[in-house]
Write a structure and sequence with these properties.
alpha/beta, Peroxisomal Thiolase, Chain A, domain 1, nine-stranded mixed beta sheet, two-stranded antiparallel sheet, 17% strand, globular, binds coenzyme A
């Protein structure tokens, strides 16, 4: 059943904006928000006075000690005065939390046009401050000292995964098995990032570099190397959600076909670390609402905050059975010319991961693919794609299915 059949209306992405991701020393959180909000409203063909509500995804104001950041969008235009603006926080999925709140406001009929923004400014703070702020997403770790930050939490996932499935992957030992597979995922996403003008990293490191520990690719938290991690980033993205598009919009609109959201338990001991069970639930909800299976997707932008997350994602989305995710990369399915290209944008790995911006950025990249405006990233025949965004280690999970009209 389509959204229209279920809720009596379509949800369309009618305009979008995206900043460059990276270390943006000349930009503030405010200038990033105003830039992408302006682009999104202009491209939708609307005026600021047409916006009924604003949601901003931003994770941790500890990295940028500001309150009321959702109100920063109002600096764009006097016509935005008195528009309700709310900040959503669900760790690294804060952007998708904003997106789904916007969807629900339009579905509820309390807003006709919603501006959704995701933004984060991380590089102004030192590595120790950023690391501690990110660990807040783990709740149990919040306030605790850690030398490995969030990488340490995903390193535990990799260790558990290797213990359970490693011997079935390639050869004996981590280096020839899971380590090589994660290196291939990193190399794929770095290669894809070369074609993304918004990406933070334009470096085609190649398989050998990503698979090998070296001075230039040191261990961050055993067994994860630097190339297994997303970088620390600044950036923002925005979309306008409406029930119909105007003839003044810059591109054709994109339709939301389904969406899902599921949160998981703390403490982590209650969960199997090799399975992101709530992530799987969010995929099932979104695909179920869209009435399609994973085989009906032409591409997916997924949350590869660390390479092990992308590997487990192949299984959570149902591309392979559990423990067999490595097949998706070894057999070439997830490359640009494969049956389900994953992270053609370079993913968080190469595009960058300004945490609150990521979920909105993924929707913007998908919308570009579906309107044939993705430039060097463009896939032939991209008619339906998925976006998956995750906060914490499988804690806050969001999936959207988007379709070309
Ligand atoms: N992947 C690949 N290369 C990276 C990189 C990354 N994630 N981060 C930095 N680099 C490169 C830089 O381009 C630079 O290259 P150069 O020496 O050739 O110019 C070099 O590594 C050193 O950069 P620097 O910024 O000093 O790296 P760092 O060691 O301080 O930080 C990480 C690297 C991986 C520790 C850091 O990016 C990090 O903490 N990432 C994880 C962030 C995180 O937890 N996000 C939340 C996810 S849920």
């Amino acid at each position: 059943m389509s959204l229209k059949e279920q809720f009596g209306k379509d949800i369309l992405l009618t305009g979008w904006g995206h900043s460059k991701f990276g270390k943006l020393t000349d930009q503030t959180l405010e200038s990033l928000i105003v830039q992408v909000a302006g682009e999104a409203i202009r491209n939708s063909g609307l005026d600021p006075k047409d916006i009924d509500e604003i949601y901003l995804g931003q994770f941790n104001s500890g990295m940028q000690p500001l309150g009321f950041t959702s109100s920063l969008a109002l600096q764009l235009s006097a016509d935005l005065a008195n528009v309700p603006a709310t900040r959503t926080e669900n760790a690294c999925a804060s952007g998708s939390a904003a997106f789904q709140q916007g969807v629900k406001a339009v579905l509820a009929g309390t807003a006709r046009n919603v501006l959704v923004i995701g933004a984060e400014k991380m590089t102004d703070a030192g590595a120790d401050v950023v690391g501690a702020a990110l660990l807040g997403a783990s709740y149990e770790m919040a306030g605790k000292a850690s030398t490995t930050g969030f990488t340490g939490l995903f390193a535990e996932v990799a260790k558990h995964y290797d213990k359970r499935y490693g011997s079935s992957i390639n050869g004996p030992g981590y280096e020839a098995g899971l380590g090589d597979v994660l290196g291939s995922i990193a190399a794929k996403n770095h290669r894809n990032g070369m074609d993304n003008p918004y990406a933070q990293m334009h470096r085609d490191f190649g398989e050998e570099f990503c698979r090998t520990i070296s001075d230039k690719n040191p261990m961050v938290a055993e067994p994860l190397r630097r190339t297994d991690c997303s970088p620390v980033s600044d950036g923002a993205a925005a979309v306008v959600l409406s029930t119909s598009a105007t003839s003044d919009s810059a591109t054709a609109p994109v339709r939301l076909a389904g969406f899902g959201h599921a949160n998981d338990f703390f403490p982590a001991e209650k969960r199997d670390p090799t399975e992101f069970a709530a992530t799987r639930a969010s995929w099932e909800r979104a695909l179920g609402m869209a009435g399609v299976g994973v085989d009906h997707l032409d591409f997916a932008e997924v949350h590869d905050c660390f390479t092990i997350a992308e590997l487990v994602m192949y299984e959570a989305m149902g591309l392979t059975p559990r423990g067999e995710g490595s097949r998706a990369i070894k057999e070439g399915w997830v490359y640009k010319d494969g049956k389900l290209p994953v992270n053609v944008s370079g993913g968080l790995k190469a595009k960058g991961h300004p945490v609150g911006a990521t979920g909105v950025s993924q929707h913007v990249i998908a919308a570009m693919q579906l309107t044939g405006t993705a430039g060097g990233m463009q896939l032939a025949n991209a008619r339906r794609g998925a976006v998956q965004n995750m906060g914490g280690v499988g804690i806050a999970n969001y999936v959207s299915i988007l379709e070309a009209l």
